[in-house]
Design goal:
343 residues, alpha+beta, Arc Repressor Mutant, subunit A, 4-stranded antiparallel sheet, 9 helices
Length: 343
């Protein structure tokens, strides 16, 4: 019975250890995934802004916009800028600083707007630049670039080829950059968990290998424990608890040989039965110390020990009768605990 309990405890320890390891592994992998995802999004956002800046540079240099031969700034103040374009039909553009920007940011905003009017954004060029940067980052993420009206949400232009539609039911992320007060350019990314896990493949391989090694270690410890317990059980004689079976005990003027089931003294030899031998052996092994009543019941009657509780009292009374000729030998009852052999 005790051996079975040890096996169950060992098995429970192995199972709980394995489950705890897998739980910790899941938490660690989840946090690692979130951190990797955030890092990827930051890198892609930086790449998109760089691609947009390059597209602006390729489109038309700022010096061409403010070339005096083509455009003249007639008024430049903190509140208003008047631009006169020398075209076949000269026209005037008035910009009001209604947002209250500083003069420097106000002028930069005007130049940006002029750039859009003279040479519109080439959305396909921007898509090529952005794709090249993603390739350099080894991030094969599908995307669509859109130019849309901020006020109405209407898509004005898209990098999708005519007749094609964006895939539906796919995890999407959006990064954007403003073109003007009315328009915004954005990249709709089809970033899937597979993209993130591909970036984490080295970590995943290491984590899986470490988990397998630890689980194998737990299984090995469990197997070693089982082998050790089986070895102990194999050395234990049938029907006897595992005490010092090869030892002969001296109990006052009596001699007790567990292997022969014999209690001898005062010129007589008493042949003990199986239960008497087991109970006396347990008391002798802990001579002077208390042997718990539950232990005696468990070793001799197993799971039915409580049913045979009165039988234990009967066997103890019999053993006291065998030992009564030596007044120095006593089996003392420790109330509520167990019994102690005193001699």
């Amino acid at each position: 019975m005790i051996s079975n309990k040890k096996h169950i405890r060992s098995l429970l320890f192995a199972v709980v250890s394995g489950i705890s390891l897998l739980a910790l592994q899941s938490v660690w992998m989840y946090n690692s995934y979130i951190l990797e995802y955030q890092q990827i999004m930051n890198n892609i956002n930086d790449a998109f802004r760089q691609a947009y800046q390059k597209e602006q540079t390729y489109r038309i240099p700022v010096v061409d916009i403010v070339n005096p031969g083509a455009i003249t700034i007639q008024s430049c103040g903190t509140e208003e800028i008047i631009i006169v374009r020398k075209c076949p039909e000269a026209d005037t553009i008035v910009y009001n600083n209604i947002s209250g920007h500083s003069i420097e940011s106000f002028i930069n905003h005007v130049f940006l707007d002029l750039r859009e009017q003279i040479v519109p954004l080439n959305i396909y060029c921007l898509a090529d630049l952005f794709a090249g940067m993603l390739y350099d980052m080894e991030m094969p993420v599908a995307f669509v670039i859109e130019r849309f009206d901020k006020t109405t949400g209407e898509v004005l232009e898209t990098s999708l080829l005519p007749g094609k539609k964006q895939p539906e039911k796919i995890h999407k992320n959006v990064i954007s950059s403003e073109i003007s007060d009315k328009e915004t350019i954005r990249a709709v990314l089809q970033l899937t968990p597979e993209n993130v896990f591909m970036r984490m493949r080295g970590m995943l391989v290491f984590s899986i290998c470490l988990t397998i090694i630890v689980l194998l270690g737990i299984v090995l410890l469990y197997r070693c424990q089982c082998v050790r317990q089986n070895g102990e059980n194999a050395l234990q004689p049938a029907g006897q608890p595992f005490h010092l079976q090869n030892r002969v005990f001296n109990i006052g003027q009596y001699h007790f040989d567990p292997n022969k089931n014999e209690l001898s003294g005062y010129g007589e030899c008493i042949q003990l039965n199986k239960k008497e031998n087991s109970i006396l052996q347990a008391l002798c092994a802990k001579q002077g110390n208390v042997v718990e009543r539950n232990l005696l019941l468990d070793e001799n009657w197993g799971s039915l020990g409580m049913v045979y509780s009165r039988s234990l009292d009967t066997y103890l009374a019999t053993l006291r009768k065998y030992l009564k000729k030596d007044s120095s030998v006593q089996i003392v009852t420790i109330k509520g605990v167990g019994y102690k052999l005193v001699c």
